[in-house]
Amino acid sequence: MQLIYNPIFLEHDTGMHPENKKRLTSLGDLPVTEVPNGEQYLTLVHTPEYIKRIEEACMRGGHIDNDTIVSPGSYEAAIHAVGATIMASERGDFALTRPPGHHAHIDKSSGFCLFNNIAIAAQYHADKGKRVLIFDFDGHLGDGTVKFFNESDKVFYWSLHQYPAFPGGGDADEIGTGKGAGYTINIPLPPGTGDEIFMDAVESFLPIAKEFNPDIVAISAGFDSHQYDLLLDLRLSLNSYYKIGKLLSENFTHVFATLEGGYNIEMFPKCLYSFLDGINHREMKFKERETDSMIQTHYEYEGRKAMAIQSLSKYWKTI
User: How much is the pTM?
Assistant: First the structure.
């Protein structure tokens, strides 16, 4: 898995906002990839009215909701982020893009997100008859993504996220509805969750993801669960990101990723490269002591895990 990067993503100018261009410039000089304009794919997920509204809002600049800021360069950055994510999905690479996407709804921006990059790429492949697994390990629930695929049995959404935290929801018994019942896994992690709980949540539900037998695995790769990230209260070390990458490459053949969160610009590069080292079967470059969780956190997690297992057990043989 290689990085797909283009400086057009720096044109999304948010000033001193937590989601700012330093997230990418913190990585230093990167090889530049020519990325396509993904505007033609926006209507796979978003309404034409919303797309037009975002384009006009970017021309004006400023806040478009309580959390999200745009600038005159934001629309071009956003549509190329979509294009880069589609490119990554076809090549099995990592789209190092901004703005992020998983909080964006059909007709509403939210949580720093304009267009839902991962949902668009997933729908692009679902329309071609592919079974798509979305694994969202960002520390926030991808509320836009999970809502869009809530009734789908072609796109499986699996999220590990802190609860309580923005944006709310994502309870363990929220497993999809209609044809999509059983095709959503939500694992709400208590604040204070360390490596051992996080990896248990991955390993315990991985058999369901494999039973789904996806043709393609789409990763909403957010790194804000790291112990030094400022927006959440999870306690992951770099080791979890390495292990996630390794597990994915060992269990699935066609995997791609696009960037979501991760706001500590000193730790973000180490988190990203730890994930890439894992998925590319390389030795882990950066070392960090593993974290653990308090006993009360374990008790809370086990209750939530049991609820998820109970809710999903009638749909899958492997749980």
Answer: 0.98
Q: How far apart (Å, rounded) are the C-alpha atoms in residues 203 and 245?
A: 13
Domain that includes residue 197, residue range: 3-312
Report the alpha-carbon distance of residue 247 to residue 243 in Å, rounded: 6
Residue recorded with tokens 């790769």: 221
Looking at 12, 103, 125, 161, which residue is catalytic? Answer: 103
Residue range 282-316, pLDDT digits in tens:
999 999 999 999 999 999 999 999 999 999 999 99
**Banded pLDDT at 319 (limits 50, 70, 90):** confident
Taking only the tens place, the pLDDT of each residue in 3-24 is: 999 999 999 999 999 999 999 9
Residue 9 forms part of a structural domain: yes
- Token pair recorded at residue 75: 């629309």
Number of domains the chain is built from: 1
CA distance 298 to 295: 5
In a domain, 319, yes or no: no
Active site (annotated) includes residue 103? yes
Interacting residues of 228 by C-beta distance below 8 A, sequence separation 6+: 264, 266, 267
